[in-house]
Amino acid sequence: MRYSAGNGRGADAEAGTAALAGIDLRVARGEFLSLLGPSGCGKSTLLRLVAGLLAPTSGRLSWAAAPAPGGIGFVFQEPTLMPWARVAENVRLPLDLAGVPRAEAAARAAALLEQVGLADFARAYPRELSGGMRMRAALARALVTGPQVLLLDEPFAALDEITRFRLNDDLLDLWRQTGFTALFVTHSVFESVYLSSRIAVLGPRPGRMVAERVVDLPWPRTAALRTSPSFNAVVREVSGLLASAMGEGERTA
Amino acid sequence: MSRGDGRDGNGPDENGRKGRGLRILLPLLLAVLVLGSWEGLVRWRQIPVFVLPPPSLILRALVGDAGTLGASLWLTLTITLQAFALAVVSGVALAVLFSQSRSLAAALYPYAVILQVTPVVAIAPLVIIWVGYERVDLALLILAWIVAFFPILSNTSLGLSAVDPNLRDLFRLYGASRRQMLLRLQLPSALPYLLAGMKVSAGLALIGAVVAEFVAGSGTASGLAWRIVESGNRLNIPRMFAALALLAGLGVLLFAMLSWLQARLLNRWHESGLDR
Q1: Minimum CA–CA partner of B8 in chain A
Q2: Cross-chain residue pair A76–B171, CB shorter than 8 Å
Q3: Residue A78 Cα, gap to closest chain B Cα (Å)
Q4: Å between A180 CA and nearest CA of chain B
Q5: How far apart are CA B120 and CA B207, in angstroms?
Q6: What domains can be seen in chain B, in order of their start residue?
Q7: Going by CATH, does the domain composed of A2-251 fall within 3.90.600.10?
Q8: Contacts of B191 in chain A (CB under 8 A)
Q9: Is the CB of residue A161 less than 8 Å from the CB of residue A138?
Q10: Which of B42, B61, B201, B269 could pair with B242 as two cysteines, CB 3.0-4.6 Å apart?
Q11: Which A positions 153-212 lie with beta carbon below 8 A of chain B?
């Protein structure tokens, strides 16, 4: 099954400016695709278009098989948990909204919490968790419906490096276990190379696709890879692509 | 997970207990000091009772007139609580209605504001005439409700619209209905705002009940406000002070109850619930 986000040209509804122009992106099932670009390149807009939270003003978004309700999971830049609800209730929310019976929803949520290592904190409130744990809860919530597609909008940008590395590994584990298609927005070259099977480099104002790079590093990705020459070679190349996307040319490459 | 395991550690909890103790002890100490010097000053300077009665005499009036004052206290309390409850229900209901229909909000909101900015003393005679002197309690209730209503409406309206935009997107992504959006997202988001509004509103309900009774005048109602007027007319100043003390006590009690409710409902999740 393949679906393509073809030539999606979205507009920022509030500002009325064209956020995207000339993006032709095909995403294959089960791949881990990173959208890498500087701020203002419309990465988030693209993600919102795919999620159906924004409607494209022109252009088209097509699916090989349209996702069922709950078929898309979304992880925001902030954990975006309901502060008044316990962690388990937060994780259960998508199922509750879909009218899944309580017992079944609770069991699903418990399983996901176990998977992200938060089983002991099911009854805690978000305020009582660290930033990394909150993000894990957000991941669990996004995966609780068993989505085919997971959209992640710079989810780890606000975390410290140690926590970020650990969550990178956890995310990859979840991806390998469940086989969702991941669309990961980031402005970190290192993160995109470490996580992705493919990287799409976007340029700013208006957002357009500048380059694509398949990341053929071996799986599973481990901490040792982060310091290996092959990893660094890809990082150098992708950094060059990003620099040219920002209009700086060969200078930084 | 107990609160002690949170980011505050154990120290602030102990400090919190100590702080709470001080917060009760210090005002009490001050009260003893002030009442003592008041008593002493009045006796020493032989200030006439009708100018400033000593606290001991006020206490005697409080005990001696317990029957009358108690009945008055009960009347003022019930009117205040009824008006407050009515204000909460109608304020929240109208705020929810406003949040569902923008045109309804646009049409009605100015009138809610007019009702709010018109001084209740000025409306009171009209309301009393309309309701009739034989049902003056109802007039008091209406007037107290009018003043208590607006903080609930405006705070709840603010809270219902102050929803985290990302959470709103999340609910939309999962196809939440308007009802789910309201019950699971907007109302919980509005709760801290509503509770803050309730604190203001309860005080205003008491003020409304008292002011309305002043306006209603002689012999029609017998709440604490009327006791104050009556005692003043008879130059029974100790009783006047006793009624005043009861009114103040009532206000403090309402405030304390709502503070307790606020802490109880918000302490696990809202920043305002943190021990500081």
Answers
A1: A128
A2: no
A3: 8
A4: 17
A5: 10
A6: 71-223 (1.10.3720.10)
A7: no
A8: 84
A9: no
A10: B61
A11: none
Amino acid at A139: L
Question: Which uninterrupted H or E stretch holds A2?
Answer: strand A2-5
A13 phi, psi to nearest 5 deg: -60, -35
8 Å CB contact of A76 and B170 = yes
Contact B174 A94 (CB under 8 A): yes
Partners of B1 on chain A (C-beta within 8 Å) are: 121, 123-124, 128
What three-state secondary structure class fits B115? Answer: helix
- Contact state of B166 with A78 under an 8 Å Cβ cutoff: yes
ipTM here: 0.83
Contact A220/A172 with Cβ under 8 angstroms? yes
Could you give the C-alpha distances from B170 to A55, A79, A169, B178, in angstroms and in order?
Answer: 16, 11, 25, 14
**What are the structural domain ranges in chain A?**
2-251
Q: Going residue by residue through chain A (253 aa), what tens digit of pLDDT does each one get? A: 343 444 333 333 333 345 566 677 777 788 888 888 887 777 788 888 888 888 777 777 777 777 777 788 899 988 999 999 999 999 999 998 888 898 988 999 999 898 888 889 988 899 888 888 999 999 999 999 888 889 999 888 888 888 888 888 888 888 988 888 898 998 888 888 888 888 888 877 667 777 788 878 778 888 778 888 888 888 888 888 888 877 743 343 3
Residues 86-105 (A) with a CB less than 8 A from some CB of B: 93-94, 96-98
What does the alpha-carbon distance between residue B41 and residue A76 come to, in Å, rounded to a whole number?
67
CA atoms within a 13 Å half-sphere pointing along the CA-CB vector of A116: 28
pLDDT digits (tens, 9 = 90+) for B188-219: 999 999 999 999 999 999 999 998 888 877 56
